[in-house]
Write a structure and sequence with these properties.
The strands form three sheets. Strands 1, 2, 3, 9, 12, 13, 14, 15, 16 and 17 form a ten-stranded mixed β-sheet that branches. A four-stranded mixed β-sheet has the order 8-4-10-11. Strands 5-7-6 form a three-stranded antiparallel β-sheet. It is an alpha/beta fold. Helix 2 packs across helix 4, helix 3 packs across helix 4 and helix 7 runs parallel beside helix 9. It has one domain: Carbamate kinase, CATH 3.40.1160.10. The protein starts with a strand and ends with a strand.
Length: about 300
């Protein structure tokens, strides 16, 4: 079975952890051990987030004032190489008998996407409300709430197409574990003369993973994060963990735009387009997820909603 895995930024770097290389490697090593359990039984394609990392690179670039800050598309490419390297090496170490390859992946977006007028994608470290307000004023950033904290937000347009799709298919066909669409992919647009050109944005990796899974005709999309299951009425006394749900039911519920919302929309789209199932769950619960004991399963033929 071909499974597309989307690794959340929070699965690779826990909230509040320092943005240090060794911290990320440690988390990637643990993630890779879990991925290896799947890779030994199924074909896997890995996508990953880059919110904390691309924000860090942007901060580092601003600190060097002798050159203009690098645009987000270039920083996205840098994070694909950086995170891809860590995942590639650790998955290779964990699996041992399969070739693992990281592919710089360009994703086409629409320059007229309304997301450019409404930044919503959190990147970089978390701040207190006071810190966020001060930094936003000093640097002209957009900031929004992200759980208990605040973070910088940037435009997050919807992915339309995958430039390197043929290459990804060829690599899968020859038995490689492919890491692609990292950080949602490098955002590019088509110019009037049909040339590719980078654009200032960070694409949501869940939407890109959904598009990649759809284009590859994968049998499953698995979005792995730091929560056991999707919760209805999250953070309230009425909170309930969802076990199985149809896309139709999930689309009627309210989920935060900067966190669970994109995961819901991405999985619903995949299921609606392919009729295959998708799941959202905790990285460390992979074995339980495969046995149906953990995670939220989105299924086209589900009868409404079932809770744990």
């Amino acid at each position: 079975m071909l499974i597309v895995i989307a690794l959340g930024g929070n699965a690779l770097l826990q909230r509040g952890e320092p943005l240090e290389a060794e911290t990320q490697r440690k988390n990637v090593r643990e993630a890779s051990k879990e991925i290896a359990k799947l890779a030994k039984q199924h074909q896997v394609v890995i996508c990953h987030g880059n919110g904390p990392q691309v924000g860090l690179l942007a901060l580092q670039a601003e600190a060097y004032t002798q050159v203009k800050p690098y645009p987000l598309d270039v920083l996205d490419a840098e994070t694909q190489g950086m995170i891809g390297y860590l995942i590639q090496q650790e998955v290779d170490n964990a699996v041992g008998n399969q070739s693992v390859v990281t592919l710089l992946t360009q994703i086409i977006v629409d320059p007229n996407d309304p997301a450019f007028k409404n930044p919503s994608k959190p990147i970089g470290p978390v701040y207190s409300k006071e810190q966020a307000e001060k930094i936003a004023k000093e640097r002209g950033w957009n900031v929004k709430e992200d759980g208990k904290y605040y973070r910088r937000v940037v435009p997050s347009p919807k992915p339309i197409n995958i430039v390197e799709l043929v290459t990804i298919k060829a690599l899968i066909k020859t038995g490689h574990i492919v890491i692609c669409g990292g950080g949602g992919g490098i955002p590019v647009m088509k110019t009037e003369d049909h040339k590719l050109q980078g654009i200032e944005a960070v694409i949501d990796k869940d939407h890109t993973a959904s598009l990649i899974a759809e284009k590859l005709e994968a049998e499953s999309l698995m979005i792995l994060t730091d929560v056991k299951a999707v919760c209805e009425n999250f953070g309230t006394p009425e909170e309930k963990q969802i076990k199985i749900a149809s896309p139709e039911v999930l689309r009627k519920l309210d989920f935060p735009a900067g966190s669970m919302g994109p995961k819901i929309l991405a999985t619903c789209r995949f299921v609606e387009q392919t009729k295959h199932s998708a799941v959202i769950g905790r990285l460390t619960d992979i074995e339980d997820i495969m046995q149906g004991k953990a995670g939220t399963f989105i299924q086209a033929n589900a009868d409404g909603i079932t809770y744990y």
